[in-house]
Amino acid sequence: MSSKSESKLAGQYFDAAIDLLQRVRDEESGNIAAAGTLLADAVAAGGRLFAFGAGHSSLAAQDVVYRAGGLALMNLLAVPGVVGVDVMPATLGSALERVDGLAGAVLDSSPARPGDVLVIVSLSGRNSLPVEMAMNARALGLKVIGVTSVAYATETRSRHVSGSFLKDHCDVVVDSKIAVGDAELSLDGVEAPFGPASSVVTNALMQAMVATAVEELASRGVQPPLLRSGNVDGGHDWNGRVFQEYGDRIFYRH
């Protein structure tokens, strides 16, 4: 392949990603605002925040946990074996997403309690794990934000016994607009599409929700519990004070 062809495809990928980002900015602004308000409500009321995702969807969940510029109260709700490709074989993670009952066991042993907020990231929203995670979380009194591609609910079949999708069990749904298959590019002679954009878009949606929560808290006169970079002078001291003040709502340090 020539460098000219490579440049063309790279440009096409960036164009596709930018188009999707513009779509979610314009079409999901109301849902992003609603999601951010739920996060702010929980912070202001003494609640805790959790994020969950399986497989590559876990990347977006991890992106808002323990990071510079992020809300210190956002905790990763981890399910062993499904967080990433570090499990061997990697296909085990995909298999675990289809196991009935796993989500309930995870939530029952987690620190989540009524009034907390759980953000569930699942591109397809069709597997048992995210569906049951949402159902069980709401039954426990949590508010649930689902970040998913609604297109899957009309173009695929649910793998949960109820026939429902993640979007059917959320207080707020944020639609990533990702097409079924998550591949933005194709090329003559290449038999499969490529160029997934779900991570780019979903990470942006998560950060937009956090930004909305910060804005909402500030408007109420509440200082958002934000972390600073440990690689700037004073960052560690700042974070130490935040950890001390909010230690009972932060679980990634225990």
TrEMBL record:
Keywords: Isomerase. InterPro entries: RpiR-like_SIS, SIS_dom, SIS_dom_sf, SIS_GmhA/DiaA_subfam, UPF0309. This is UPF0309 protein GKQ77_24945. Residues 39-224 form the SIS domain. The keyword Isomerase applies. Belongs to the UPF0309 family. It comes from the Bacteria. One of its GO terms (molecular function) is isomerase activity. Gene3D superfamilies: Glucose-6-phosphate isomerase like protein, domain 1. It comes from Streptomyces anatolicus.
